[in-house]
Every structure is written in structure tokens, then in C-alpha cells.
């Protein structure tokens, strides 16, 4: 579904690319973990496949159409759903309204369906009394789960997440990974997540490590 072709990126110095000549394919129904040292370029890679920045070299294709042809604004709104390292929720809203707003903005098939939004929040362990509270009065881990719920309620087939379990305890980490696996397998989406935790990576269907400017597929 998503494919990179000879992808390369550097910030200032062309002689020091973060990665180069990257040819990868990601399919729906699968979850992918990306590992790598701090500063290796994982977040940068996600920002390219999320359409937040443009490659220096090469191209990215969604179902064989280059993102440049789809248009990055359309792509970001309708084709991809992002869980950032900082959760970027709509801050003055409740969890429930975060989901309803995201569904409305993206024109999701469940737009306006409160029961659906509540059901997803509940599945991520957000209790009913938290659903209508301002998200700023939630803990970091709770906010992160709301961000994941927002991804689940929208229709975008590509879900990218940057260290989505970074703020979570053991139990919630397990719950969140289970939800990502449901997004991939039951919702038939493509999940690409960056993590520093080998246990988390091991539970994804495929693992890659970014090292020496290349994404190396790890053996199962
Ligand atoms: N806007 C920017 N301008 C210049 N350099 C940047 C910029 N953003 C990131 N970098 C540098 O690019 C490199 C890769 O950053 P990136 O955030 O992609 O790493 P990462 O693998 O996600 O690291 P971490 O695991 O710590 O989140 C780092 O050395 C970082 O300092
Ligand atoms: Mg990062």
C-alpha cells in the first residue's frame, strides 16, 4: 500500500544524510516496528511518510500514486492518521469531542456517532467519567491513549505512531499494543510505529532497525 523508492533525507548537509536509497513496502493488515538509536532519523522518516515534510531524494507512493500527485494536504487529512511523540490532541476539548471532531474534519464514515466514539475510548481504558473532561486534566498516558483512540475512529488506512508507549506503564503498554494489532488485523490498516522497547517491537508483525542510513529487516 505504501512504498518508498530510493528515499533519502538530510537536514543541512547532503554529505551527512540520515538515510539514503531506502526502498521499503508496507501493507495493510500488517504492523511494523521501527527501532534505532536516538537521533538516527526515525521521527524524520515518519514525518516523510506522514506527509509532513518532503523527501530530499526519491519518492513515496500510496497505492502506486506519488504523494506529490495526491497532494500533501489531502494526504494528511484523509489518508494518514498520526500519533505523535507529544500527543497533539485538541487541547481545550474532552476526549469524546477529540474523537468527534477528528471524525468530522476527516469526513469519517462514523462521523457524529457518539456511541462509536465512546466504545473506542472504553476499549482503550478511558473510563466514562474521563471522556467529557478537558484532556489537559488527563495524565500523559491517558492522553496518549486518547490519541490512539482518535486514530481508530477515523478511516485513514495508514497509521503512524512515534513511541506510542513511551509514557505508559506495563499494563497499558500491553493494552495499547493489543489495540494497534487490532487496528492492523481487524480494521485492516497499515500500522507503522517507532519504539525504543524491544518487547513492543517483538509484538509487531515485522521489525526494522534504522542503522548506517538503511532500514534493516530483522529476522523473525
Ligand atoms: N528540524 C531539524 N533541523 C536540523 N536537524 C534536525 C531537525 N530535526 C531533527 N534533527 C536532527 O536529525 C537527527 C534525527 O532526528 P530524529 O528526530 O529523526 O531522530 P530519532 O531517531 O527520532 O531520535 P529519538 O529516538 O531520540 O526520537 C538528529 O540528529 C536531530 O538532531
Ligand atoms: Mg524520535
Structure description:
35% of the residues lie in helices and 25% in strands. The protein has 220 residues and is an alpha/beta fold. It has one domain (2-217): 3-Layer(aba) Sandwich (Rossmann fold). Helix 4 (95-106) packs across helix 5. Bound molecules: adenosine-5'-triphosphate and magnesium ion (MG).
Radius of gyration: 17 Å
Overall residue-averaged pLDDT value: 93
Name of the top-level CATH class: Alpha Beta
Order of helices and strands: EEEHEEHHEHHHEHEHEE
Cα(first) to Cα(last) distance is: 22 Å
CATH third-level topology = Rossmann fold
Please, how many helices?
8
Helix content range: 25-40%
Q: For the report, how would you describe the main beta sheet?
A: 6 strands, mixed
Q: What would the principal axes of the Cα set say about the shape?
A: globular
Keywords: ATP-binding, Nucleotide-binding, Transport
Family: Belongs to the ABC transporter superfamily.
Protein name: ABC transporter ATP-binding protein
GO molecular function: ATP binding
Summarize the structure.
Keywords: ATP-binding, Nucleotide-binding, Transport. With 220 residues, the chain is α/β, with parallel strands linked by helices.
Keywords:
four-stranded antiparallel beta sheet, six-stranded mixed beta sheet, binds adenosine-5'-triphosphate, binds magnesium ion, 10 strands, alpha/beta, globular, single chain, 25% strand, Rossmann fold, 220 residues
Per-chain topology:
Blueprint lengths: L1 E8 L9 E8 L4 E6 L5 H8 L7 E6 L2 E2 H4 L1 H8 E4 L11 H12 L7 H10 L16 H14 L4 E5 L7 H16 L4 E5 L3 H5 L3 E6 L2 E4 L3
Helix pairs in contact: 4-5, 4-6, 5-6, 6-7
The structure holds adenosine-5'-triphosphate (ATP) and magnesium ion.
Amino acid at each position: 500500500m505504501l512504498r518508498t523508492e530510493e528515499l533519502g533525507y538530510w537536514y543541512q548537509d547532503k554529505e551527512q544524510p540520515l538515510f539514503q536509497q531506502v526502498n521499503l513496502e508496507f501493507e495493510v493488515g500488517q504492523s511494523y516496528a521501527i527501532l534505532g538509536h536516538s537521533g538516527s532519523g526515525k521521527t524524520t522518516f515518519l514525518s516523510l511518510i506522514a506527509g509532513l515534510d518532503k523527501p530530499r531524494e526519491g519518492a513515496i507512493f500510496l497505492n502506486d500514486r506519488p504523494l506529490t500527485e495526491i497532494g500533501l494536504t489531502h494526504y494528511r487529512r484523509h489518508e494518514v492518521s498520526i500519533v505523535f511523540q507529544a500527543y497533539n490532541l485538541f487541547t481545550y476539548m474532552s476526549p469524546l469531542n477529540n474523537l468527534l471532531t477528528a471524525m468530522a474534519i476527516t469526513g469519517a464514515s462514523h462521523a457524529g456517532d457518539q456511541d462509536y466514539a465512546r466504545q473506542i475510548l472504553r476499549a482503550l481504558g478511558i473510563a466514562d467519567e474521563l471522556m467529557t473532561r478537558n484532556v489537559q486534566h488527563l495524565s500523559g498516558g491517558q492522553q496518549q491513549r486518547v490519541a490512539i483512540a482518535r486514530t481508530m475512529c477515523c478511516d485513514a488506512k495508514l497509521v503512524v505512531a512515534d513511541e506510542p508507549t513511551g509514557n505508559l506503564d506495563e499494563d497499558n503498554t500491553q493494552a495499547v499494543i493489543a489495540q494497534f494489532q487490532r487496528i492492523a488485523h481487524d480494521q485492516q490498516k497499515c500500522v507503522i510505529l517507532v519504539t525504543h522497547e524491544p518487547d513492543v517491537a517483538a509484538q509487531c508483525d515485522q521489525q526494522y532497525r534504522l542503522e548506517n542510513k538503511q532500514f534493516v529487516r530483522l529476522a523473525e
